[in-house]
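Our consortium's second objective concerns turning raw sequence data into structural hypotheses that experimental partners can test. To show how far this objective has progressed, the report includes one record in full. It was chosen at random from the queue rather than selected for favorable results. The single chain below, 138 residues long, was entered without modification.
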Amino acid sequence: MGSMTVTQVARQANVSPHTVRYYTRIGLLRPARRRDNGYKEFTTSELDRLKFIRRAQRLGFTLAEIEEILRRAARHESPCPMVRQIVAKRIEENRAVLDAVSALVSRMERAMAVWATMKDGVPDGHAVCALIESLNEV
């Protein structure tokens, strides 16, 4: 395949043309410009780069991190140590988030068990919601 338009490269990468334009605007993609009409032309190399960007995003990398990975690769420096470090950090962060969500689900389940035997209350000026106020843990 020769050169591609924004729409064609977007379709090939399964992204929106808006995404391709945005990545171009921030410098992650660098298409050539056609001399006759000034339109951007994307090569298979740019398509591969776009697919790399999307793959990295699915692993949780930010666009700034992806830009640094691409920059290091362009300087013939291995980005792999940085990639490993970022992923290891994200694993820790995500485990902490999962632990917090798991603890929240446990609190909610305990609350539901207590509330199953309680009647609905009507606010009386001293209480807002008897269900929530019945819980001792914060």
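The partners drew two points from this record. The helical segments are 6-13, 17-25, 44-58, 63-74, 80-115, 130-133. DSSP finds six helices and two strands in the chain. Both points have been shared with the crystallography group to help prioritize constructs.
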